[in-house]
Specification:
This is dCTP deaminase. Pfam families: DCD. The protein is built from 2 helices and 11 strands; from the N terminus they run H-E-E-E-E-E-E-E-H-E-E-E-E. The chain has 176 residues and is mostly beta strands. The protein has one domain: Deoxyuridine triphosphatase (dUTPase) (Deoxyuridine 5'-Triphosphate Nucleotidohydrolase, Chain A). 26% of the residues are buried.
């Protein structure tokens, strides 16, 4: 079951969902709009290697915006800190942003029960696109879980700002 807008508002009010800052104007019929934060990360190496840390460059998005290029992956973040110890959150791009040719969550829309923090956004434009800090960029839906809950305690907990991949922390480097 998916939570409706009024239920999201009620759950944010009684603590079942944490959305900070919470703005009632961002509540939709069955989701909550999230806004783009003011920082981006890009990987700087020609080849990204999942088995080691990868160098990144941080970009601050000014009030005039920043132009995303199609040949680059950008890691952004939500303004809002969002989480729940009761519901499963899923984040998707807003359809209005998709119609501009921006992929907001490429492969990982599902959040874990118990994660609390700013969400990292995987931004990939199909053509040059200017983005602005604070623009509504995505929407989070909340689903009822069934069964025993094991709260998230992973490496991205309490994220603030965009987070680069830490895939390498979970794997043994293959030997050849």
């Amino acid at each position: 079951m998916i939570l409706t807008g009024p239920e999201i508002t009620e759950a944010a009010g009684d603590g079942r969902i944490v959305i900070s800052p919470f703005n009632p104007a961002q509540v939709n019929p069955n989701s909550y709009n999230v806004c783009l934060g003011d920082r981006l990360l890009t990987y700087t190496d020609d080849v990204i290697d999942p088995y080691r840390p990868n160098a990144t460059r941080e970009i601050t998005i000014g009030e005039d915006g920043y132009v995303l290029r199609p040949d680059q992956l950008y890691l952004g973040h939500t303004v809002e800190q969002v989480g729940s110890d009761q519901y499963v959150p899923l984040l998707f791009g807003r359809s209005s942003v998709g119609r501009l040719g921006l992929f907001v969550e490429i492969t990982a829309p599902i959040g874990d029960i118990g994660f609390h923090g700013q969400w990292t956004l995987m931004l990939a434009p199909v053509r040059p696109l200017r983005v602005y800090p604070g623009m509504k960029i995505g929407q989070i839906m909340f689903f009822v879980s069934l069964g025993e809950v094991d709260l998230y305690r992973g490496k991205y907990q309490s994220s603030a700002g965009p987070q680069e991949s830490r895939y390498w922390k979970d794997v043994a480097v293959p030997t050849t």
